[in-house]
Specification:
The complex is a heterodimer. By secondary structure, chain A is α+β, with helices and mostly antiparallel strands. Among the domains of chain A are: 144 residues, Beta-Lactamase; 156 residues, Beta-Lactamase, CATH 3.30.450.30. Chain A contains 21 helices and 18 strands. Chain B is α/β, with parallel strands linked by helices. Chain B has one domain: Rossmann fold. Chain B is 27% helix and 23% strand. In chain B, strands 2-3-1-4-5-6 form a 6-stranded mixed β-sheet, with helices on both faces. Classes of the chains: A alpha+beta, B alpha/beta. At the A-B interface, helix 15, strand 10 and helix 16 of A face helix 1 and strand 2 of B.
Chain lengths: 622, 220
């Protein structure tokens, strides 16, 4: 895969192209101070042994100690620095420059051939490449990845695809989330069960430091017990040397290990996820366990009895862990970006909802949220406290991914710990789902990747008062009455039914097929609809893997990158990071760099213009 | 969370009473399924564990003039929620303690809940014992782990209503809740004369001092 990067803040230094004369990049000195302050050191993920013994906590999900949804005090970046009209022209050439730079660095001799650097050297003739890829690259209506299949006959091109043999992988991916049969007591089906277990692309295992199994996404105890033993041996070997194992690679599988107190969490992936992604996922699973038990409770159990079987106190939450794990396996923009998605609403409509929330607020309320189908509509919160996106991700996972709460019907009162807020105690969460259609507003049933219908609006009130149920229930009734009266409910349902906009809805005629745009100060993101180009789960998975790569490129280097550009036979992709936003987007391989840069700039301008519609800024504060 | 008992002062002489009901029992015995069958007349073969507690309401008509509204707390069966249970049963007028007739240990757990309710809950609380998953036993009698007579015997001794139920086939679900409603002290809510129409003359709506009638609802 050919790619090229430019390093912000060091325009003169081009480590990748040391032998070439680097073309000049426009300097952007205004970012230097900010980036110097925020550049996060990353662990050497690829090494077998962790080298940063002191900093066990990876700076991923948690480290962005976010004041999520609250703007006060959190990094308020001036927008003047971003994509104001005046800076746009200078930015665009800078992207085009990179394209030029890329060509020079990849192949000084033949610029055009370098675009398809996957082609084996023997086929360096441009004409051959053209004929091989001709109809693929020009066929615009094809999805970005379908083209991969059409060039499969040439083994030389396999390396160029993201995952190697896609058809094989797609087949495996289709059954990835299926349950494995139980081992029969007579062991007659052992072979087939083991085969099914080994064919899984992803495994998550959680064990106690004493080596007791706590959770496994696939397979029951009998099946995993040997593996647990091996893992335990390996982990304790490194632990005894006081040099904890963090990650390693074996064949095409990546292993990431997260040790937290009495727990060891292990992720095994053949989906080409980066170690930092895998560790962020493990961190989220750990947060889920804390959310059930609280940290002091768990520590007490283990300190009084190191051989404690944690499965008992965690009983019933396996579905929550599995829902998280499956979300990661399918690909989760929210975990990748450590941010939340917000429902698009007009500013006036959102303000009306915020005000209604404030008006109905009762004394027991700590946080109030309105969430439509996993997307945030509004938040009411005390001035001093903000919400951690990791915590909200757990809540959203519980309500919208795991079926337990929703299927139970009625209203719910759920004790839970929000570890990002306070990992030592419980809060109580009131949840009520609204019926999908009210007052004649028909909510179109859209099917999401996993076949769940959209159109669920949840009212979530969080309180420290364990007896607060009826008080919050009254608040919910008041809120719904007010929101029906002032039309807010209709606005929410209308926006839900419209779903996400496609790239061409936003920018008519754009080359972009999909994008993720994260507003850093709001800790929120927005994205285009997966349809029509990424309508299958596997195509989404691959899209998210491209984003994962781009994200890792932006974040895993000592010097933070500003722009990262990737090209392959089937797509071109761009990651663009500024103090205000992060943008990730893909376009078909036939797109020129200039066109991609232009489209990205247009998109950033659109996001800037629509900021107050796309994002919840501050929310309702009391 | 105080129970409300509304006086049925409506012109037609109709009565309306509202009671708090709590469901208790080991995890995976089918508490949610029972409630969903009662409230929504739905059943789902595969269910994830309840998280926390769910609050539902259902109104049933005992006869033309009497309606009873249940406010139902459906609690999670897991051990870690045990300390929260008093919050739900403290003011309850009635309780359904559920066990799984194919799981011997679940009756022990149910007995522990009954004991706790009799010790800690409202003095006049009406308790019903429900042996759920009758459909499994109907399909395959060898699956039964708890003989109906044993449970009925225990229910008589402890003064409980007793039913074997199936949330899946709806067997005895409505009967269970109706029997509870009939046992609740409706007469406090309105004049006795209202029930003069003479339906079911044998049913006494006052709380029973003896539990021997508790087993009368047993259809097994």
């Amino acid at each position: 895969m050919a790619n090229n990067t430019s390093q912000e803040g060091s325009p003169q230094l081009k480590p990748d192209t040391s032998e070439e004369t680097p073309p000049p990049l426009p300097p952007r000195p205004e970012n230097l101070t900010f980036l110097a302050g925020s550049g996060r050191p990353q662990s050497s993920a690829g090494s077998v042994k962790g080298t940063q013994r002191g900093s066990l906590r990876p700076s991923l999900l948690q480290s962005k100690a976010t004041t999520a949804l609250s703007l006060e005090g959190s990094g308020q970046y001036t927008h003047g620095e971003t994509i104001s009209g005046s800076s746009t022209p200078s930015r665009q050439p800078s992207l085009a420059n990179i394209g030029y730079n890329y060509m020079r660095s990849a192949s000084d001799v033949d610029d055009t051939a370098s675009i398809r650097s996957a082609v084996p050297p023997s086929e360096s003739g441009v004409g051959d490449v053209e004929s091989l890829l001709g109809d693929v690259v020009t066929e615009r209506d094809q999805t970005a990845f379908e083209s991969v299949a059409s060039v499969r006959q040439d083994p030389g091109l396999f390396e160029e695809t993201l995952f190697g043999d896609a058809a094989e992988l797609e087949k495996e991916f289709e059954t990835e989330l299926d349950e494995i049969d139980e081992l029969k007591t007579d062991g007659s089906n052992q072979e087939s069960v083991m085969k099914a277990w080994r064919s899984k692309l992803k495994h998550y295992l959680i064990l106690s430091s004493a080596g007791k199994p706590i959770y496994s996404r696939h397979g029951d105890d009998h099946l995993i017990t040997n593996y647990i033993g091996i893992i335990q041996t390996i982990i304790s070997f490194y632990n005894s040397a006081d040099d904890p194992l963090r990650s390693f690679t074996a064949g095409d599988a990546r292993f990431a290990i997260l040790s937290r107190g009495y727990l060891n969490l292990v992720a095994i992936s053949r989906l080409h996820e980066s170690f930092s992604e895998l560790r962020a996922q493990l961190e989220a699973l750990y947060m889920q366990i804390l959310s059930t038990l609280t940290l002091p409770n768990m520590e007490r159990m283990f300190s009084s009895r190191p051989s404690t079987d944690l499965r008992r106190p965690l009983q019933g939450t396996e579905s929550l862990l599995s829902a998280l794990a499956d979300g990661f396996t399918r690909g989760s923009p929210s975990t990748l970006l450590s941010a939340l998605e917000c429902l698009k609403l007009r500013k006036a409509h959102r303000n009306a909802i915020n005000n209604t929330l404030l008006k109905c607020r009762t004394p027991s309320l700590l946080y109030g949220l309105i969430v439509a189908n996993g997307r945030l509509v509004s938040v009411v919160r005390p001035k001093k406290h903000s919400l951690h996106p990791g915590d909200l991700h757990l809540v959203f996972n519980m309500l919208f991914e795991a079926g337990g709460v929703k299927a139970g019907g009625g209203e719910n009162w759920i004790p839970l710990c929000l570890p990002g807020f306070n990992n030592t105690g419980y809060l109580y969460m009131y949840v009520s789902f609204l019926s999908a259609s009210r007052d004649g507003v028909e909510v179109e049933e859209r099917r999401t990747a996993d076949g769940k219908g959209e159109g669920e609006v949840a009212i979530i009130f969080i309180s420290a008062n364990k007896e607060g149920f009826f008080e919050l229930r009254q608040m919910r009734n008041d809120l719904i009455e007010q929101m029906s009266k002032n039309g807010s409910l209709d606005h929410i349902l209308e926006s839900v039914s419209q779903g996400r906009s496609s790239c061409t809805d936003i920018l008519p005629g754009t080359v972009l097929r999909h994008f993720l745009y994260k507003s850093r100060s709001n800790v929120q993101y927005c994205m285009s609809s997966y349809d029509p180009f990424f309508s299958t789960p596997f195509s989404r998975r691959r899209l998210l893997s491209i984003y994962g790569d781009l994200h890792a490129q932006l974040h895993s280097r000592p010097v933070r990158l500003k722009i990262h550009y990737t090209t392959s036979t089937s797509y071109v992709a761009l990651a663009w990071s500024s103090p205000v936003f992060e943008l990730y987007c893909v376009a078909p391989a036939s797109t020129s760099r200039a066109a991609l840069a232009q489209a990205a700039t247009a998109l950033v301008n659109w996001a800037k213009r629509s900021e107050e519609r796309l994002f919840l800024i501050g929310g309702a504060v009391f | 969370m105080a129970a409300r008992m509304q006086q049925g002062g409506r012109p037609g002489g109709s009565r309306f009473a509202q009671f708090k009901l709590v469901l208790l029992g080991e995890s995976a015995v089918g508490k949610v399924s029972l409630v969903l069958r009662f409230v929504k007349d739905q059943f789902d073969d595969y269910r994830e564990s309840t998280i926390g507690a769910a609050f539902l309401t259902q109104t049933i008509a005992l006869d033309e003039s009497t309606t009873v509204k249940f406010e139902i707390w459906d609690t999670a069966g897991q051990e870690r929620y045990k300390s929260l249970a008093p919050m739900y049963y403290r003011n309850a007028n009635c309780a359904v303690v559920v066990y799984d007739i194919t799981q011997a240990s679940s009756l022990d757990k149910a007995k522990a809940w009954v004991k706790e309710l009799q010790r800690q809950a409202n003095e006049n609380i009406i308790i019903a014992l429900a042996g759920n998953k009758l459909d499994l036993v109907s399909a395959d009698p060898t699956k039964r782990a708890i003989p109906a007579e044993d449970a009925a015997q225990y229910a008589r001794e402890a003064g409980l209503l007793f039913f074997e139920t199936s949330a899946k086939t709806a067997d005895n679900v409505r009967e269970l809740f109706t029997a509870i409603a009939r046992k609740l002290p409706l007469d406090q809510a309105g004049p006795r004369s209202i029930r003069s129409a003479g339906h079911r003359p044998g049913v006494d709506l006052r709380p029973e001092s003896s539990g021997t009638q508790g087993a009368s609802g047993c259809n097994c």
